[in-house]
């Protein structure tokens, strides 16, 4: 398309091509006015350029006053700055640039300041719309793939994501939080972890916070962020048995039920059973009994008494319910302000007699 329709502005263009070009420009500006109309500004001209580029001139509407970037009030235009290019969403494989001479404002409050634009912020070369567009695709593709797909750079994709994240944090409403899940994720070789906290409620599942490391200090930053009233309002906390997490949950979520990861509970229980079995074997050997061949094997008679390990799809069901919020029959440890004992639940089979029948997720619990 570009090869057939593009002509240098100084060259001769036949009538048919000129008509097509005029039609194209009109349609493009109509489209822009439909989807991105900015009061006080006019899309003046659109032209095809080499290298699959569309440039669109933008000018202030006659009589419109610029907005001060300091106090956001309208003021008198002071002078014009050099031409700036703002990247807009590509169309049909063509990069789109908005070209605009920014004005300076003679503001009574702030003095002479650069005007504020409705389509861009600060010194960003990307329009706000394009940054939202890139950040949307950066959730589906890698940042490198996003940059190559839309003919921009990795740095600009990063800028777009930072812009959207900053906007989200600024407009975030934490609100009441009833249930959270905490888990760690390894992000590099060695013991390099991040702590992730999710809100896991039926009508709201979202990532609330990410912190570096998986220490008491790092996890406490989350509760410092949400404050004491919200912390004390949390009713359920899903976590694994990482001790720093258990400690912080015990100290900060004084009214919460701590739901522990079933995989770790079963692993601890199996370890305890192995200890008992080994002690029994030693005692029998001291009493002069000859251990049977089957009992020496890991899968022998003794091990057959072991409780059923996680289901065949253990890799799925045994993962932390904190991150999946699936009803996977977790084992709970009731935690109240009056419970000053250890935060680590006891090992061994969960005691069904202590099951809280009114608790929605307590097939087995230990107080
Ligand atoms: Zn001002």
How many distinct helices?
11
Estimated share of beta-strand residues: 25-35%
Shape: elongated
Could you give the distance between the termini?
A: 72 Å
The strand line-up of the biggest sheet is: 8-7-6-9-10-11-12
Number of domains: 2
Give a structural overview.
This protein is of the alpha/beta class. The protein folds into two domains: 2-8 and 17-169, no CATH class; 177-272 and 316-367, Nucleotidyltransferase, domain 5 (2-Layer Sandwich), CATH 3.30.420. The chain has eleven helices and twelve strands. It has helices at residues 2-5, 15-35, 128-138, 143-149, 154-170, 216-233, 243-252, 262-286, 293-296, 314-317, 321-324, and strands at 41-49, 53-60, 76-91, 94-107, 111-114, 179-188, 192-201, 204-212, 236-239, 257-260, 331-334, 364-366. The protein has a seven-stranded mixed sheet with strand order 8-7-6-9-10-11-12. Strand 7 and strand 8 (204-212) form a beta hairpin. Helix 3 packs across helix 5 (154-170), helix 4 (143-149) crosses helix 5 and helix 6 (216-233) runs parallel beside helix 7. It is elongated, with a radius of gyration of 32 Å. The model is unreliable at 1-11 and 299-367 (pLDDT under 50). The structure holds zinc ion. Residues 68, 70-71, 73, 107, 109-110, 113 line the site of zinc ion (ZN).
């Amino acid at each position: 398309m570009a090869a057939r329709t593009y002509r240098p502005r100084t060259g001769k263009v036949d009538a048919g091509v000129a008509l097509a070009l005029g039609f194209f420009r009109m349609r493009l500006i109509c489209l822009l006015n439909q989807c991105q109309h900015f009061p006080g500004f006019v899309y003046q001209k659109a032209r095809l350029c080499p290298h699959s580029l569309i440039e669109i001139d933008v000018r202030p509407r006659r009589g419109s006053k610029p907005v001060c970037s300091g106090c956001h009030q309208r003021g008198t235009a002071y002078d014009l700055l050099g031409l700036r290019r703002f990247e807009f969403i590509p169309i049909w494989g063509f990069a789109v640039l908005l070209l605009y001479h920014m004005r300076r404002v003679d503001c009574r409050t702030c003095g002479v300041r650069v005007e504020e634009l409705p389509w861009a912020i600060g010194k960003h070369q990307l329009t706000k719309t394009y940054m939202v567009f890139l950040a949307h695709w950066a959730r589906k593709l890698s940042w490198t793939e996003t940059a190559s797909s839309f003919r921009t750079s990795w740095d600009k994709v990063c800028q777009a994501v930072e812009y959207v994240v900053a906007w989200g944090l600024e407009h975030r409403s934490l609100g009441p939080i009833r249930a959270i899940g905490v888990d760690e994720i390894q992000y590099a070789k060695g013991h390099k972890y991040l702590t992730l906290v999710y809100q896991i409620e039926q009508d709201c599942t979202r990532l609330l916070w990410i912190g570096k490391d998986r220490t008491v200090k790092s996890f406490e930053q989350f509760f410092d962020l949400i404050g004491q009233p919200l912390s004390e309002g949390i009713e359920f906390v899903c976590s694994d048995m990482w001790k720093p997490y258990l400690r912080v949950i015990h100290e900060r979520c004084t009214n919460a039920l701590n739901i522990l990861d079933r995989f770790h509970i079963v692993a601890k229980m199996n370890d305890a059973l192995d200890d008992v079995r080994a002690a029994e074997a030693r005692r029998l050997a001291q009493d002069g009994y000859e251990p049977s061949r089957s009992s020496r094997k890991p899968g022998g008679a003794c091990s057959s008494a072991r409780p059923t390990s996680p289901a065949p799809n253990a890799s799925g069901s045994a993962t932390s319910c904190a991150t999946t919020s699936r009803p996977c029959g977790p084992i709970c440890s009731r935690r109240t302000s009056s419970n000053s004992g250890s935060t680590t639940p006891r090992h061994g089979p969960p005691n069904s007699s202590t099951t809280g029948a009114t608790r929605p997720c307590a097939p087995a619990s230990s107080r």
